[in-house]
Amino acid sequence: MTYEAVVFAEDLSKEFGSIRAVDGISFYVREGECYGFLGPNGAGKTTAIRMIYCRTPVTSGVLKVFGLDVRRYGREIKSMVGVAPQENNLDPDLDVIENLLVYSRYYDIPKKVARERAMELLRFLSIDERRKEQVTKLSGGMQRRLVIARALINNPRLLVLDEPTTGLDPQARHLIWQRIRELKRQGVTMILTTHYMEEAEQLCDRVAVMDLGKILVEGPPRELIERYAGKDVFEIRRVEDEGFLKALRGLEFSFEKAGDTIYIYSNNGDEIGRRLFSIKDIEVLHRRSNLEDVFLKLTGKELRD
Questions:
Q1: C-alpha to C-alpha distance for 140 and 232, rounded to whole angstroms
Q2: To which H or E segment does residue 277 belong?
Q3: In 100-110, which positions are buried (b, 16+ CB within 10 angstroms) versus exposed (e)?
Q4: Cα separation of 251 and 142, whole Å?
Q5: Does the pLDDT of residue 249 top 70, yes or no?
Q6: Both 188 and 252 in a single domain?
Q7: What is the DSSP letter of 95?
Q8: What single string gives the DSSP state of each residue in 37-74?
Q9: I want to staple 109 with a disulfide (CB 3.0 to 4.6 A). Which of 1, 114, 131, 160 is the partner?
């Protein structure tokens, strides 16, 4: 698989003292695809991608980017990768376009080329009219777009997006999604981490669900949904009747109880719906299954810090 993979990892691990943050994962990323890492806080997502762009050293295993070993060719790999980290780590002392121009010097991009590219990226991400403003005056959404523009200044062959839309309003999130889809049409290979399951469904060709440093499942979002959550989900709220729970256990479908809600997953929604909606004194919500159902089913519904 190494000869056709932009990123190839085999039995990849990262330890911080006694903590094994990434625990023997194997995966690959094809050229031109968007590959997503999903998982709760502390699952190992960010550590995994930091090893890919040579920010964090590998403890053990194989990790190659464009066929190059990250242990030996860090400088070469960094020149081909663009990174938009979780934090908006822009320079507050510089205005918008200066943040791009100063960053371009790390890649030895000629000044004229850098300015042309910076203006093109600012237009692409709809912030060119604010190019002379200090970054501290930008909204959170504009700052995120500027971080992505900065990650693209070197025309990367691989773009790493670590939670690119966290904390943004729906309008800003959808604008970034549009731009990411456009980059994908241009052939840019992308790796994405996100807590938004809809974002992963919208953007990713394949996703890996991680927990406790391991990859639990991997595949196209729709295939994972059908495999682990079926086509339909029923949510039954405020159920405390043990007799009702006992009756559910006798039926031929899987369900889970979390807090005040029972979740029923099924490929035969019409039949189950007729049964459930005929029962009095329960609240039933019927919806199509989604990637969040897979995520919660595999990693649990309890709150994590």
A1: 36
A2: helix 269-277
A3: bbebbeeeebe
A4: 51
A5: no
A6: no
A7: B
A8: EE-STTSSHHHHHHHHTTSS--SEEEEEETTEETTT-H
A9: 114
**pLDDT-based confidence at residue 277 (cuts at 50, 70, 90):** confident
Residue length of the chain: 305
Angle at 21 between CA 20 and CA 27, to 5 degrees: 110
In this structure, the answer to whether residues 187 and 49 fall within a common structural domain is: yes
d(CA 273, CA 35): 35
- The pLDDT, as a whole number, for residue 2 is 43
Domain closes at, from 172, 197, 222 = 222
In this prediction, residue 251 has a pLDDT band, given cuts at 50, 70 and 90, of low
Main-chain dihedrals φ then ψ at residue 115, nearest 5 degrees: -65, -45
In a domain? residue 278: yes
* Amino acid in position 54: C
Residue 44 lies in domain = 31-56+69-222
Q: Supply the CATH number for residue 277's domain.
A: 3.30.70
Structure-token pair, residue 296: 């919660």
Q: What is the pLDDT of residues 156-187, one digit of tens each?
A: 999 999 999 988 889 989 999 999 999 999 99
The per-residue pLDDT for range 284-302, each reduced to its tens digit, is 888 899 999 899 888 876 6
Is residue 130 in a domain? yes
CA-closest candidate to residue 287, choices 231, 205, 248: 231
Q: At what angle do helices 140-151 and 111-124 cross, to 10 degrees?
A: 140
Give the whole-angstrom CA distance, residue 138 versus residue 127: 10
81 and 217 share a domain?
Answer: yes
Place of tokens 């049964």: 275
Please say which residue of 180, 196, 222 terminates a domain: 222
Instruction: Determine the Cα–Cα distance for residues 101 and 153; give it in Å rounded to an integer.
Output: 9
Could you tell me the pTM of the whole model?
0.89
The pair of structure tokens assigned to 85 is 């980290």
